[in-house]
Structure formats: structure tokens, C-alpha cells
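PROTEIN DESIGN WORKSHEET
SECTION A - STRUCTURE
LENGTH: 359
C-ALPHA CELLS:
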């Protein structure tokens, strides 16, 4: 009886698989047609706002038992393959393979686009600004260690816009070909080393921390140093063939890095958006207070503000800020018009769909 039940269920699953295959191919044909129309109209293939709206609608209609996270992962790859059918994309990010920036690019764009792995964050900006990539993914801030200075530096001068954001839960692993007691050096990106500082002090007090360009670079270094260990992602251990000695070694359980998706053009409103700006104030008392007043009066929620020192001008600062809303909203435009009147410099970095910070 049980065997018949199993076989019957399998038959039903196979029928559903064939139905899904038929529907996926129909969707793909529509995507190809959409690509032709977009090319005729001169529109972009990648529309993060449209994808965010579709996914939000599907998650709202999901009655289970398929978890929302699984549904999001499935549609990430559906979106990815649909984009490639319309027009191939090239995405630049900080490498090597299996770096956290690489993982963030996969989380946003799926596995279909060509992903170009650069050695530095600056090279990601360079490739985009020269028109040699469609989009770029760069780390912007970490919930524990704060902002990424190289990204902030380039955001000041670049003409690129923020098109989307990706939040990635960061879980660090210690990996090595040697034994833990034999480790003399621990390689990783400076932020990863800082995020695991207490664990290293307790468990590897004899090991010297060595900074690398990325966590994946650290894994590559360790393949040549039998007395070295790397702090990197679990994917890096698989890619570079390194046994994991310890998992989840970050000092704080909630360790999330926010990545920005950069490109040209702009993202349309979704109803759940964020805008990022950069501004400078006069060097007089009360200047910052006066600049922030229009946000309060317009009831616009400031989500983040950070001062940043101006090079060659001691004790003078620029300010990065994020707030809820989109530049296409009237109250946002009016607020920024008032803010501009109180600043010496104002740059809109982009309006874009809010990312899922629960990853």
C-alpha cells in the first residue's frame, strides 16, 4: 500500500514538473519578445524596481508550504535567465571567486550573467565608468565595522548611480590545510579580521593577522602557506579545496554587509524605496541642524547619516545620508530643493528599491 502511495505521488510530481517546464518556456518566450521591444525603445534589460515589485507581489500571494526564501531564490534565477535571453549582462565585483562581493552579485543577479572579478573596489568603478560592464556590486557598509572607505571615496566623484542594494549575512569560516595548533598566520580582508578579532584572540593568540584584498584572496594565499589559515566564506573552502577548521567565527551573530548595485540610468519607484545623497554644509554653527530640518518637516524618515572628512581640508566634512522615499515623489523633490538651499554641495547618489536586510 505504501509503495503504491509513493508511486502515485511521484507520478503527480512528474506531471507538475512537466507543467512547470511548459510554463517556464512560455515565460521565456515572452521574455525574448520583451527584449526585442526594449531594444526598439532603447530601454534597459535590467530593471531592479520591476523585479522587486514582481517578487513582492508573489511573496504576498504565497500561501505555502514553499517558504518565502525558497520562492525568492527560485525567482532570482528565473529573472536571471530571462535577462540573459533579452540581452547578456556583464556584472563587475570584487573577486576572486567566492569572495563575499561575488556572493552578493550572485544573490542579486543569479548565475546567468557574466561576472567579472576585479582585484580592487577601485577597478570595479573603473570598469563601469569606462563602459566595460553593465553593472557593478561594491561593499558599502558592515553592521559591525561600519563603512567601506574605498567605496565612499569613489562615490564622491563617480557619475554612476545606485540602482539597488543587497544585504548579505556574513558568516566567516576558518580554513587551512594544516592543524589549528600549527597556524602561524591568519589571512583575510581587514574587515573580516576585525569582525573575528575576539575569536582569534581566544583561539589563535599566537597567529599573526595578515591583511589581503579580499577573503577569497586569503584562501588562495593559504593554499601556498601550510602554516597559514584563511577567514573566508564556506563557498571559498569548496572552490579552493581548503578544509574548514571552524565555522561561524564572527564575534557578533548579526553580521550583515550592505552592498550597492551601481550602474547608469535610474530605478523607477516601487512604493518601498530608499534614496541616498551626499552633501556638504557651510562651516558655521548650526549648519547641519538647518540642513536636516526639511526632512523632519516633510516627515521623511532619515535612515542613516555619516560624516566623511574632506581631503586636504582639516576638520571639514561631507555627509552621506539615506532616507525613505524616491526622487520621483513630489515631497522628496521639494525637500531636496530646500536642502540644496542650505548646503554648499548636494549630490543625489540614487533612488532604488529597499533591499531585504533580513538575509
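SECTION B - SEQUENCE
RESIDUE ASSIGNMENT:
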Amino acid at each position: 500500500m505504501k509503495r503504491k502511495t509513493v508511486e502515485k505521488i511521484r507520478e503527480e510530481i512528474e506531471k507538475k514538473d512537466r507543467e512547470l517546464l511548459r510554463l517556464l518556456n512560455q515565460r521565456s518566450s515572452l521574455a525574448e519578445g520583451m527584449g526585442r521591444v526594449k531594444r526598439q525603445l532603447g530601454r534597459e534589460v535590467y530593471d531592479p524596481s520591476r523585479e522587486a515589485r514582481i517578487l513582492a507581489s508573489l511573496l504576498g500571494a504565497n500561501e505555502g508550504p514553499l517558504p518565502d526564501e525558497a520562492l525568492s531564490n527560485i525567482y532570482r534565477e528565473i529573472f536571471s535567465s530571462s535577462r540573459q535571453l533579452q540581452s547578456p549582462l556583464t556584472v563587475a565585483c570584487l573577486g576572486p571567486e567566492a569572495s563575499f562581493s561575488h556572493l552578493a552579485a550572485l544573490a542579486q543577479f543569479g548565475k546567468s550573467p557574466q561576472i567579472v572579478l576585479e582585484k580592487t573596489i577601485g577597478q570595479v568603478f573603473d570598469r563601469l565608468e569606462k563602459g566595460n560592464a553593465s553593472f557593478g556590486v561594491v561593499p558599502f557598509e558592515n553592521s559591525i565595522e561600519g563603512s567601506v572607505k574605498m567605496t565612499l571615496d569613489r562615490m564622491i566623484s563617480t557619475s554612476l548611480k545606485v540602482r539597488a542594494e543587497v544585504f548579505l549575512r556574513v558568516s566567516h569560516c576558518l580554513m587551512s590545510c594544516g592543524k589549528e595548533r600549527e597556524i602561524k598566520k591568519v589571512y583575510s580582508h581587514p574587515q573580516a579580521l576585525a569582525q573575528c578579532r575576539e575569536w582569534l584572540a581566544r583561539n589563535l593568540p599566537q597567529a599573526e593577522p595578515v591583511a589581503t584584498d579580499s577573503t577569497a584572496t586569503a584562501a588562495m594565499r593559504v593554499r601556498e602557506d601550510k602554516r597559514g589559515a584563511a577567514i573566508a566564506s564556506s563557498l571559498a573552502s569548496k572552490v579552493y579545496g581548503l578544509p574548514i577548521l571552524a565555522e561561524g567565527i564572527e564575534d557578533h551573530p548579526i553580521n550583515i554587509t550592505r552592498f550597492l548595485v551601481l550602474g547608469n540610468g535610474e530605478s523607477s519607484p516601487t512604493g518601498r524605496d530608499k534614496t541616498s545623497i551626499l552633501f556638504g554644509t557651510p562651516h558655521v554653527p548650526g549648519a547641519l541642524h538647518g540642513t536636516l530640518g526639511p526632512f523632519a518637516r516633510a516627515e521623511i524618515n532619515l535612515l542613516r547619516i555619516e560624516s566623511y572628512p574632506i581631503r586636504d581640508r582639516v576638520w571639514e566634512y561631507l555627509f552621506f545620508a539615506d532616507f525613505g522615499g524616491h526622487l520621483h515623489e513630489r515631497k522628496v523633490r521639494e525637500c531636496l530643493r530646500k536642502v540644496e538651499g542650505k548646503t554648499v554641495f548636494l549630490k543625489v547618489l540614487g533612488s532604488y528599491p529597499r533591499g531585504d536586510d533580513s538575509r
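SECTION C - NOTES
The first strand starts at residue 90 and ends at 94.
The two ends are 43 Å apart (CA to CA).
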